[in-house]
Specification:
This protein is mainly beta. It has a single domain (13-294), classed as Distorted Sandwich (Beta-galactosidase, Chain A, domain 5), CATH 2.70.98. The protein contains three helices and 23 strands. The protein is globular, with a radius of gyration of 18 Å. It starts with a helix and ends with a strand. The structure holds 6-O-phosphono-beta-D-tagatofuranose. 6-O-phosphono-beta-D-tagatofuranose is lined by residues 69, 82, 89-90, 163, 187, 208, 240, 242, 265, 267.
């Protein structure tokens, strides 16, 4: 990774460092914000706008091992979401080292990095070796573009999800806005189909919901840190909201028992019945744009 990387490093903007576990990490220093990205999973683990608290949650107990997903940040779930018989959770992309292909910084200090998923792991797992890239734009906002081009001769049916862990001051003072009137599958109640009736969703126990035909933006109102986070998206019809709460948090070795109080996942993708089907030559693009501002 280091040889080609040197050509892509941008002094003072894009630097390759290593984390204490020895896993290569890319540090991005923009004019408006900073970020950290691991080629392992093309995993954005940190984004912080100047003068604001970190936007993303990263567990203090996260592992940084080649065969483990990093706990927090923005796991890239692809080419499947959730559990799959005899396979890893949430797909192979987040356990694969992506190749850094391009870096760019504009005169205003906005930085863009493009990673490519090597096709070999897809092929080895029996999936079409499609062309898959993740472009991360670090500016006043954080933008991720997951692009899939089926340049194979086979149909390619897959799920994708940017499984974002947002950092909040106190989950008991958080409200999630934008899902009223949307149907969802409640994974805490055996995937029971329900209708969201709350204008402002509050979380006081384990929540694990897959919202269906959810194409709109969601806002996370954080009263403790007096911040509102906007989760805008395109190319996505599934929104997942997850907080493990106490019992699940205690059961996860790579998640602090008390950390459920400082995070909430609002995930954007295409999962379950909303999976994506690409014929040869077709492409799909999933974009998320995260922004934040003081509130009220
Ligand atoms: O998106 C919510 C979810 O599917 C939960 O059911 C839980 O499994 C979570 O993802 C975390 O999955 P992981 O494999 O990262 O532990």
């Amino acid at each position: 990774m280091t040889a080609p990387f040197q050509k892509l490093a941008l002094p003072g903007r894009v630097e390759l460092v290593s984390n204490p576990a020895g896993l290569p990490k890319i540090r991005v220093t923009g004019a408006f914000s900073t970020a950290e990205i691991y080629p392992h999973g093309a995993h954005v683990t940190q984004f912080q706008k100047n003068g604001e608290p970190p936007l993303l949650f990263l567990s203090r107990q996260s592992l940084f091992a080649a065969d483990k997903a990093i706990r927090g940040g923005i796991p890239v779930c692809f080419p499947w979401f959730g559990a799959r018989e005899g396979a890893v959770m949430h797909g192979i992309a987040r356990l694969t080292t992506w190749e850094l292909m391009e870096t760019a910084a504009d005169p205003a200090g906005r930085v863009k990095l493009m990673f490519r998923l090597p096709p070999e792991p897809l092929l080895a797992a029996g999936w079409p070796p499609a062309h898959v890239t993740l472009t991360v734009s670090v500016a006043e906002k954080l933008t991720l573009d997951l692009a899939v081009r089926n340049d194979t001769a086979q149909d390619f049916v897959f799920e994708d999800c940017l499984h974002t862990y947002f950092s909040v001051g106190d989950i008991s003072q958080v409200e999630i806005i934008g899902l009223k009137g949307v149907q969802y599958l409640d994974k805490v109640e055996q995937f029971a189909r329900k209708l969201e009736s709350d204008e402002a969703i509050k979380i006081s126990s384990e929540v694990d919901r897959v919202y269906l035909n959810a194409t709109g933006a969601v806002a996370i109102r954080d009263a403790k840190w007096r911040r509102i986070i906007s989760v805008a998206k395109s190319g996505s019809t599934s929104t997942v909201v997850w907080n493990p709460w106490q019992a699940k948090a205690s059961a996860m070795a790579d998640f602090g028992d008390d950390e459920y109080g400082g995070m909430v996942c609002v995930e954007s993708g295409n999962v379950g019945d909303s999976k994506v089907a690409l014929k040869p030559g077709q492409s799909a693009a999933l974009q998320v744009v995260f922004s934040s501002a003081p509130w009220p």
